[in-house]
Design goal:
Layout: H1 3-8, H2 19-22, H3 25-34, E1 39-40, H4 41-48, H5 56-65, E2 69-74, E3 77-82, H6 85-95, H7 97-101, H8 105-131, E4 142-144, H9 146-155, E5 160-163, H10 166-171, E6 181-183, H11 191-194, E7 198-200, H12 202-214, E8 218-221, E9 226-230, H13 236-244, E10 255-259, H14 269-273, E11 279-282, E12 285-288, H15 298-302, E13 308-312
Antiparallel strand pairs: 1-3, 2-3, 4-8, 5-6, 5-7, 6-9, 8-9, 10-13, 11-12
The structure holds iron/sulfur cluster (3 copies).
One iron/sulfur cluster (SF4) binds at residues 140, 165-168, 180-181, 228-230, 234-237.
């Protein structure tokens, strides 16, 4: 692994052995040439043209699509710079999943641990800003009930598109449905702007959310960029939140659970569906530990006898 690549593509030791699977030879050379400088499209063409025996426009378009380079706004124009392994890994796992799965499990697990740590580090200052009164919303800001998610879809003005969930694609910790990430952000560096995603109708979006709910996935959104259908074992926002101790804050808890024990038939579904072990089943005994509940609301949807109800919090 060349030092320039490690430095300018922010490759941690965990990624040294697999980086050459994630980048083409030409992409590695491009990163080494670009270093940490920014280039206009024309400057990038001049950099690429004499060096590579390939169509430079197509090369730039593919490098951007694959998360190898990023765009940045400079005044009214766009400049390009090297992305990082952090960006590239998600696209690699989402769209070249066979190659990602071909990497030895231990190396994948090490990269997964690095990824969630990096994600958590990036979230801390943004959460601090929110705590200090910023109105910027972090992704996956709130847990949403199924009805709220369906209403959000009805109210959305933006066109929606579907992409494979990058958390489940990278972490590979479960076999829950992956094609459940509904996005509506189309700005630079979004999946849409890079050339990914399939447009979906409101009806299709509702179908996906309802299916995800049946499979026990939790709905989260900040209502500005995405509607996510998350699990507890892969989802980086939830794992990062666990890591930095922001249960109840991110994603924000908006409901308490009221468990009516006398209605409960001890089926144990809530214990299976809860990602945080708030409900437990031992033999025929069901128990509920309020302090472990993140307020995701998914257990309520799955209880066959309505022994679980939601109490809206004033926040
Ligand atoms: S936040 Fe949720 S739906 Fe979105 S990519 Fe992660 S697990 Fe998937
Ligand atoms: S008990 Fe709380 S955390 Fe567990 S599924 Fe129900 S709402 Fe979610
Ligand atoms: S899902 Fe409902 S009925 Fe089944 S164990 Fe949980 S609370 Fe009881």
């Amino acid at each position: 692994m060349k030092q320039e690549l490690a430095k300018f593509f922010d490759v941690p030791p965990e990624g040294y052995s697999s980086i050459e699977l994630m980048l083409t030879e030409e992409e590695i050379t491009l990163i080494e040439y670009m270093q940490d400088k920014k280039y206009t499209y024309e400057e990038l063409l001049v950099l690429i043209q004499p060096r590579f025996d390939l169509d430079p426009k197509e090369f730039i378009s593919q490098a951007y699509k694959r998360g190898v380079i990023n765009k940045e706004r400079r005044n009214d124009s766009i400049v390009y710079k090297s992305a990082s392994l952090y960006t590239r890994l998600a696209y690699f796992a989402q769209y070249e999943s066979d190659l990602w799965k071909s990497i030895a499990p231990k190396e994948r697990e090490d990269l997964d641990r690095w990824y969630v740590k990096k994600y958590a580090e990036g979230a801390i200052p943004r959460l601090k800003e929110i705590e200090n009164g910023s109105t910027n919303l972090i992704e996956n800001a709130f847990f949403y009930t199924l009805d709220e998610t369906l209403n959000l879809i009805d109210e959305l003005k933006e066109e929606m598109y579907i992409v494979p969930c990058n958390c489940k694609s990278v972490a590979l910790n479960c076999d829950k449905p992956k094609n459940v990430c509904i996005l509506f952000e189309k700005d630079i560096n979004s999946e849409w702007d890079r050339g990914w995603g399939e447009p979906i109708s409101k009806e299709k979006a509702k179908e996906i959310v309802t299916m995800a709910n049946k499979k026990g996935l939790m709905h989260t959104s900040e209502s500005e960029k995405a509607i996510c259908n998350c699990d507890g074992c892969c989802c980086y926002p939830i794992r990062a939140s666990k890591m930095i101790g922001t249960q109840g804050i991110w994603p924000k808890k908006r409901y308490n659970i009221l468990w009516e024990q006398d209605r409960c038939i001890s089926c144990g579904i809530c214990a299976k569906v809860c990602n945080f072990n708030a409900f437990n089943k031992e033999g025929a005994m069901i128990s509920f530990e309020k302090e472990k509940c993140w307020g995701c609301t998914i257990c309520k949807e799955h209880c066959p006898v309505s022994a679980i109800t939601l109490i809206k919090l004033d926040k």
